[in-house]
Please model this.
Amino acid sequence: MDEKVILQHLKDGSREALALLWQGHSSNVLNLAFRMLKDRDQAEDILMDVFVQVPKAVQAFRGESALGTWLYRLTVNACLMKLRSQKRHRELEEEKLDVIVEEVIGKLDSQGEDFDAELLEKGLAQLPAETRSMLWLKDAEDLDVKDLASIYKMPEGTVKARLSRARHLVKDFLKERKDHG
Model:
């Protein structure tokens, strides 16, 4: 079924449309929540929270982005609220670090320099949760800047600047640790 049709059915209160949305996107929502929170139980709670709020939240959704992008925005917001309330920030899942390493430290590896995944995790942990999640969605989930701008409700230029700054901060952290360690 077409997304615009699903959206209209969601706005009309269709449980079938909600079930279709669940079938198509629940694993992505759970995956993103887990990557941000690093806790399976909390990620499952976020998954449920996001889909519980869909029937009400969809009324304000104008359909200017894909439903999946909108669900990512709801998920990111829910995770950030959870992180703020718990006052703890978690780093990204280690198994995907190799994807981010290529983007974050660029050609350091190809120049024969060693990097330590654990040290990279520490560098990423220095970033605010929102920036880490943005970096994750861009580099590991391969979302484009336009989608990120929609998810984080900020101009594309701001997204690009934050991504660039985050990569530089992590790169500088790694270089500093390598030079002093």
